[in-house]
Amino acid sequence: MKIMMLGQKRSGKSATGNTLLRKQVFDTCPNEQCQVEVEEVSDQLVTVIDTPGWWKETSRCTEDMDKEIVRGLSLSPPGVHAVLLVVPLDLRFRQAQLAALEDHMNLFDEGIWKHTMVLFTYGDNLEDKSVEEHIEREHSALRWLVDKCENRYYTINNMKKADMTQVTELFEKVEEMVAGNSGQLFCPDMKDVHLRIDEKFKKRELKHVLKKSLEQEYRRRELELMISFKEKLLELQADIRESVASQRPRTLIDKNKIKAKGIGQKKKDEKEEKVDAKINREIEKLDKDILTSTILLRNSKEFLLPDLKGESSAPSNFDKVLNWISSLKIGTNTESQLTLNFSETSGYASIYDFNKDMDMPK
User: Fold this and answer.
1) Residues in domain AIG1-type G (predicted)?
2) Cα torsion 24, 80, 113, 72: sign
3) Mean pLDDT across the stretch 140-168?
4) For the whole model, what pTM was predicted?
5) Nearest 5°: CA angle at 28, between 91 and 132?
6) Contact 182, 176 (CB under 8 A)
């Protein structure tokens, strides 16, 4: 029986491997490399491949990490009978965990799901609750995962290493799944797997470039608006000062007239002085903001574009992504919001929100 374990960091994969093989062969500290061990368990040879865990935040995962995770399959050349997706019961399984999981499962072909089973660790956390109750009460992301694995799951408690019953039951479930697959091993084309990794990280780089380009355009327009607003304030300030100057007494008669107007005129003058001072403060603030925006805009123009040349000549959907990017036009809608126009003829456009990540086309 050949088994590969996949899962998030600190999910209990290594401890589970030790439980399955009934030996302390895997280091339970976070590992950065794949490890394979073979032992005889209950009169059969069992191969267990432990792989590095992935981060919950997909942005922290690197190309080298992904390559090391998929390298686990090369440690069992004919392939594996089962892929155990290790999910700890001591942590919540939400959309972020599911996104990270799918991000790595997608590196393999769709056929991996026929060979996959969810293995819940930290079974002692259930206490008096059944795993079925836990699945039902948890976030819909966990129910989706269990459904995707065609309701194949098992719970293990690594605190009870001497309890062989749980290991025997797990192996029986694996054998049942293997029988359903007519004994076929999961062995994807590793060349295709590495192409998917390459495409994944090129898309990530391209997404970063496009986001930077949009941010640059946004800053440029923001700078234009601030400069325009400053000019309007300067014009307003000049008008106020001209008005104040025109009302100043030039002759003795004018002075006598102003004295006659009394306190009302004085209050008006004080109010105009306050408005002038306030405009001055706004102009000073704008000067600082304009300087900051100018620096940001200048820096955004200096970032390096990634090298998008692939080493392989194999056809890829990435070329379609590049063509799609080249057709994008940055514009504004009637409400002066920054938009992406997907083509000059279709009329379809998208308002860009800088607080959210962009979705790339599939």
Assistant:
1) 1-195
2) positive
3) 94
4) 0.64
5) 35
6) no
